[in-house]
Amino acid sequence: MSGSGGEIEVTVNGEVRTIESGHTVRSFLESLELHPGLVVVERNREILDRDAYDDVRVEAGDVLELVHFVGGG
Amino acid sequence: MSGSGGEIEVTVNGEVRTIESGHTVRSFLESLELHPGLVVVERNREILDRDAYDDVRVEAGDVLELVHFVGGG
Amino acid sequence: MSGSGGEIEVTVNGEVRTIESGHTVRSFLESLELHPGLVVVERNREILDRDAYDDVRVEAGDVLELVHFVGGG
Amino acid sequence: MSGSGGEIEVTVNGEVRTIESGHTVRSFLESLELHPGLVVVERNREILDRDAYDDVRVEAGDVLELVHFVGGG
Amino acid sequence: MTEMAVQEPVVRDEPLVVGGKEFRSRLIVGTGKYETNQEMVDAIAASGAEMVTVAVRRVDLDRTKEEGILYHLDPDRIFLLPNTAGCYTAEDAIRYARLGRKAGMSEFVKLEVIGDERTLLPDVQATLEAAKTLVDEGFTVMAYTNEDVVTALRLQDIGVAAVMPLASPIGSGLGLVNPYYIREIKSRLEVPVIVDAGVGTASDACVTMEQGVDGVLMNTALAAAEKPAVMARAMKLAVEAGRLAYLAGRMPKREWAVPSSPTEGMLE
Amino acid sequence: MTEMAVQEPVVRDEPLVVGGKEFRSRLIVGTGKYETNQEMVDAIAASGAEMVTVAVRRVDLDRTKEEGILYHLDPDRIFLLPNTAGCYTAEDAIRYARLGRKAGMSEFVKLEVIGDERTLLPDVQATLEAAKTLVDEGFTVMAYTNEDVVTALRLQDIGVAAVMPLASPIGSGLGLVNPYYIREIKSRLEVPVIVDAGVGTASDACVTMEQGVDGVLMNTALAAAEKPAVMARAMKLAVEAGRLAYLAGRMPKREWAVPSSPTEGMLE
Amino acid sequence: MTEMAVQEPVVRDEPLVVGGKEFRSRLIVGTGKYETNQEMVDAIAASGAEMVTVAVRRVDLDRTKEEGILYHLDPDRIFLLPNTAGCYTAEDAIRYARLGRKAGMSEFVKLEVIGDERTLLPDVQATLEAAKTLVDEGFTVMAYTNEDVVTALRLQDIGVAAVMPLASPIGSGLGLVNPYYIREIKSRLEVPVIVDAGVGTASDACVTMEQGVDGVLMNTALAAAEKPAVMARAMKLAVEAGRLAYLAGRMPKREWAVPSSPTEGMLE
Amino acid sequence: MTEMAVQEPVVRDEPLVVGGKEFRSRLIVGTGKYETNQEMVDAIAASGAEMVTVAVRRVDLDRTKEEGILYHLDPDRIFLLPNTAGCYTAEDAIRYARLGRKAGMSEFVKLEVIGDERTLLPDVQATLEAAKTLVDEGFTVMAYTNEDVVTALRLQDIGVAAVMPLASPIGSGLGLVNPYYIREIKSRLEVPVIVDAGVGTASDACVTMEQGVDGVLMNTALAAAEKPAVMARAMKLAVEAGRLAYLAGRMPKREWAVPSSPTEGMLE
Q1: Inter-chain Cβ pairs, chain G and chain H, closer than 8 A
Q2: Per CB distance under 8 Å, which residues of A are interface residues toward G?
Q3: Burial class of residue A32, CB neighbours in 10 A (0-12, 13-18, 19+)
Q4: Among residues F110, F132, F186, F236, which one is catalytic?
Q5: What residues in F contact B67, CB-CB < 8 Å?
Q6: Which of H33, H58, H259 sits opposite G260 (nearest CB)?
Q7: Which in F25, F55, F182, H79 has the greatest CB count within 10 A?
Q8: What is the 3-state secondary structure of chain H?
Q9: What is the pLDDT of residues H5-57, one digit of tens each?
Q10: Are residues H150 and E180, on separate chains, in Cβ contact within 8 Å?
Q11: Is the four-CA dihedral F109, F110, F113, F114 of positive or negative sign?
Q12: Tell me: the pLDDT tens digits for B42-67?
């Protein structure tokens, strides 16, 4: 269910979003103003290595979890 | 400070009362609807024996404390 | 490893015993002065019904556990 | 009950002692190898000032308590 | 295996003896603060108490048909123990004790001289002073005091009939805060030691009796329970339980486990 | 003011119901570790217990005139609850449970699977496993467990008839170490909660029942007391006292005092 | 008589070693529930903790200028310990552990698998299961568990780097409810025992360390104090005090008094 | 995130002021019962105490090279507080106080009048009597007393400089048996309240300070520890920890759990 024209649909942290196609993980994080060094990406239930952020592309239908450390006990 | 005519003033349980003169302790208690057998009388700081209730008269200026048992721990 | 002649070997409560052959469970219990009604018999890891004590025979090599209730918390 | 000749009897910390007569409190303390600065003297139930050690003489029959600080809670 | 067979060893205990008077029950209860007189009467009955405390107060002249406590309690069945509650000086306490003696049928008095309004802790000096006078006047003095064994010993020397240290402040329901002090007082005195005040629930009464004391006195724990009569019965049983446990001699405590069933005779 | 008048409100309490069977007494006692059988018999009678635990062990072939427990207890008057004490695996516990069922007259079993020899604390995983099998086989399982509410809830889900958390380790006599956990378990479960092990003296049993649990099981506290039968009676009373105190609703605790006698009506 | 003279014997203590990593401080603190990040930073500094726990959560996409914890803590100075808080299954806990490892700079994980929402007590079976997988994957597992020594021993057998029993429920502030169990766990294990959760105030931390455990972890006691940084410093001192008291060997307890001053040399 | 940033809020506390004299340390230690003088000196140094108690006793005439305490303590660095330990009457206590004043360099005296040899509990009446005389003579009286707030208030009225209730009997090491009474005394008095006697280990000192009292005095807990100097340092830290925890305001206690990590932001 990729978006028409240059757009695709992905699920990010539980919500479906329509984004431009062609994003790498890094460029996608930056588009969200997120610091790649502080965010861990789980793509379709698989955790990505940071150094793969440039290579891996965000595909239509991807289920992405973007997590980081927060205060906890 | 005895009352004028047939009346006198006495202090009973802290309050000044005007009563008829001539009362014995027993008749005074009965006038208050109190059972002499259940009430102890302290007259001018002196505790009266029950069998003196008939003889002792209530005089003007007497300070009477009429006490009994109440619930307590 | 049944005993020669009219004797067989059985394991009773962990110890090997040589007993006469031909015993039923009941007669065996009685030979031990045990009250069949108060003892439960496990034969080769199988618990016997009390009403089977007359039918079941003690065979050579049987492993018998004779148990009962004792004081416990 | 002063001692005959140059001797007198005094009670020091509960025990009767015979000492030479003529001692000042200070010389007496020194004769006991006690540091006057660390010892308080009670003479006949009266506490002496330290600067009186030179003037006050030990008399026959004196009851002296020589005390100091020891470990305590 | 009949109940009979064991009744005997189980029930053997001396009565509580105070001032020469014997009581089968070691529970003494107060009569204050109940919502209704019926509630009080039911609670006293359920508690099995043979001695109850009462206070001495002025008759209310404005109420006709005045109802004093004696309208509800039968002195032939329940022994009334007048107290000096509310007194803050020895003089006042002595005055109330004398009035109580006249109102009642005995020389018994529960002596209380309060030293502090917030905690209702006793004024031990005034208590000792009042106790001396009252003993001299022939009273059988049961003296409310704090957990101090020194004061308890002095009260005994003065000649009180019973020493009544508190478990915790009157009406607090905090229970037995300092069992060590209570045990110490009991072990040092010859007169009966009756713990007075602070008990809040049945286990408080039970653990208090387990210290070996001779009795327990309580009021608020019953009057302020949701169901006073039910709590009263609970207290009756708890006092008996604690007493019997003390007489039975408890098992030693251990910081490791010991099996209750045999370790031999296991199957293979 | 008659005792009658108050009997009623006082004694009203439901019986303890486990696996459809009713028990008037909320005290269950063990039969182990008594010095003599007479002592055991007297203690059980004095305790008023209607259910006692027994262990399954090999007959001692070397002793003639073997005396099993059944020579001393009348199963018509005392309900026998076989246990699996001494078992360290689910398999063993199941084996003992089956033998117990055959030896006894009921489907009841007190399931114990020990996980550690020094503390005799349960192996909760093995206990859950064994409970599942026994429930499937139609047993009425009363499961000994620790104070963990998570395990307690799972045992209930499996279908045990009663959950039996410990007060403190078996035979330790340390009493109710963690009332919070026990209250939590009781408040979360529908099946009866019977506190098993650790009670050392009467007040321990009393305070345990005050948490609202349905019953208490003990053995060493009686058998190791100086006078077992006297302690047994103390425990009977303490369990009843704690239960009634729970039903009565205790007074609130306060960190200040409240007088029991009126503050009005004092003399001048 | 100089301070120098005594420094030596006083300060001698080994560091806390977990998974081969050394920590001078035996206090570990959480980073949750502070009203402001400044408050958290100040409290951590005041606590002297070298290791802090952090949670793994989704980035909040709706907030621009998102502030994760790493904006406030310098991983070069503070060791970050990712936890699996909020997980109710072994599978979830494993997933969070893996994400935490990727986000962080180490193999360390504080494993938590919750079994009950109201008490936040652990699901010990799921914890054992998750611990096994994580140890196999090379994690340094610090496992939150209950006071059960049986479970603690199994966690050690599985190969966790530290066992973390609770003092009382997370966020309850009830303190060390069961010192006996904690002492037992410590005496039976070889891996470090770090008490996690339940500490409410300084004396709770102090008495916990006095049991001989290797460390304490807390969060709410600091974050929910009126002055978190002040409480954090109190906790730093209390943990050190408890540790030193344990090493010093306390005086024996006695139920009688012993004078501190000489009884000889009194005047007449 | 520098330690500096938080130093300030953390260390803010007023000094302990007794009789106009300021002390930075809230820990006062005794000098009795050490096996060697070196052990005492090291322990005092490690404790950080600025005030130590000493007893007044007869010089031992039979020993040459007599070693009084002053050979080991430098009065310029450590303030010496003479006590009246061992006195059983007001008269004796007054006599010792006067000797102590002459021997020392100040008007300070720790007044002790013992009422019972077994418990070493104070004779409160004799203590009040002696306190009155000594205050009239210009002494700065620090009065050892029991937990009774009534007596404490009277001592304040008489004009003592500090009231020193006990935590538990001298040398018992039972710790703070009755926090309620100590809190009550502190809340009612204006003069400093310094808890004296009974502390056994660091957590005892910590929990005592958490009640809000102004200081703690101890002797046996240090002298009878296996390693006095190490315990002394533990006590120094524990007293500071308890004080800061009191100033910080502890979290509320709850009988249920509250998560430390966010419940939002969990993965799906």
Answers
A1: 324
A2: 12-15, 32-34, 38-40, 42, 47, 49-50, 65-73
A3: middle
A4: F110
A5: 267
A6: H33
A7: F55
A8: CCHHHHHHHHHCCCCEEECCEEECCCEEEECCCCCCHHHHHHHHHHHCCCEEEEEEEECCCCCCCCCCHHHCCCCCCCEEEEECCCCCCHHHHHHHHHHHHHHCCCCEEEECCECCCCCCCECHHHHHHHHHHHHHCCCEEEEEECCCHHHHHHHHHHCCCEEEECCCCCCCCCCCCCHHHHHHHHHHCCCCEEEECCCCCHHHHHHHHCCCCCEEEECHHHHCCCCHHHHHHHHHHHHHHHHHHHHHCCCCCCCCCCCCCCCCCCCC
A9: 444 556 678 999 999 999 999 999 999 999 999 999 999 999 999 999 999 99
A10: no
A11: negative
A12: 999 999 999 999 999 999 999 999 99
Q: Within its chain, how far is the Cα of F50 from the centroid?
A: 11
pLDDT at E264: 86
The per-residue pLDDT for D5 is: 61
**Residue F6 clears pLDDT 80, i.e. is over it:** no
Residue H3 phi, psi (nearest 5) = -55, -40
Question: How far H256 CA lies from chain F's nearest CA (Å)?
Answer: 9
Q: How confident is the model at residue B9 (pLDDT cuts 50, 70, 90)?
A: very high
- Average pLDDT of the segment spanning F41-57: 95
Residue of chain G whose Cα is closest to the Cα of D14: G268
Nearest to F144 by CA among H249, E260, H74: E260
Nearest CA to G181 among F165, F252, F177? Answer: F177
pLDDT of residue C3: 41
Long-range contacts of D21-29 (CB under 8 A, 24+ apart): D21/D60, D22/D57, D23/D57, D23/D58, D24/D53, D24/D54, D24/D55, D24/D56, D24/D57, D24/D58, D25/D52, D25/D53, D25/D54, D25/D56, D25/D57, D25/D58, D26/D53, D26/D54, D28/D58, D29/D53, D29/D66
Chain E within 8 Å of F245 (Cβ-Cβ)? yes
What share of chain F has pLDDT > 70, as a percent?
A: 94
How do residues E242-256 score in pLDDT, each as one tens digit?
999 999 999 999 988
User: In chain H, what residues touch A72 (CB-CB under 8 Å)?
Assistant: 260-262
| C-alpha–C-alpha distance, residues G167 and C23, integer Å | 61
pLDDT tens string G113-134: 999 999 999 999 999 999 999 9
Is E110 marked active-site? Answer: yes
Whole-structure pTM value = 0.92
In angstroms, the Cα distances linking E119 to E165, F211, H128, H140 are: 14, 29, 21, 29
CA dihedral E221, E223, E224, E225 (to 10 degrees): 70
Residue C1 has pLDDT above 50, yes or no: no
Enter the ipTM.
0.91
- The candidate with the shortest Cα–Cα distance to F93, out of F59, F131, F66, is F131
Q: Among D3-7, D27-31, F32-36, G252-256, whose mean pLDDT is lowest?
A: D3-7
Our CA-based measurement puts residue F91 at a distance from the nearest CA of chain E, in whole angstroms, of 12
3-state helix, strand, coil in chain C (%, to 5): 20, 40, 40
On the 0-12 / 13-18 / 19+ scale of CB atoms within 10 A, F178 is: buried
Write out pLDDT tens, residues E211-235: 999 999 999 999 999 999 999 999 9
Looking at this protein, which amino acid is placed at residue H177? V
Q: Which chain H residues are closer than 8 Å to G26 by Cβ?
A: none
Chain E residue with Cα closest to C72 = E261
First vs last Cα of chain F: how many Å apart?
A: 35
Query: Rounded to the nearest 10 degrees, how much is the dihedral formed by the CA atoms of F32, F33, F39, F41?
Result: 0
Q: How confident is the model at residue H67 (pLDDT cuts 50, 70, 90)?
A: low
Mutation site, A15, A29, A69, interface G, largest G CB count within 10 A: A69
